[in-house]
Write a structure and sequence with these properties.
Length: 110
Amino acid sequence: MSAEDKKNVIEQPVKWANRRPLYDERDQEIEARANSKALGFGAGCLELFTVLCAVKGESAWRGGLALLLLGMSASMLYRSSAYEEKPYLWGGLLLGALGATLLAWFTFGS
């Protein structure tokens, strides 16, 4: 074995030890599902908050409902860009307008 071969054999484990694991499609899918589950949990909590505020007579139900509508709008607009279908676009715009109106009513209304 030559000196160059010995050097390569010694350096090879060092190169492998410093490598980071690859971020592949599986990792992206896991991250997307985790984000989806977290947002779903947050939306569920917001729905509960909205219902409790409406039952108690608090005006904060308008803000909670506005945020839910804006979240649904964002989801539909994303699907519109992914699938390139008009019903998702129109639904997203309609929900966004309703959510923005309700949010303005909550913010500036009495």
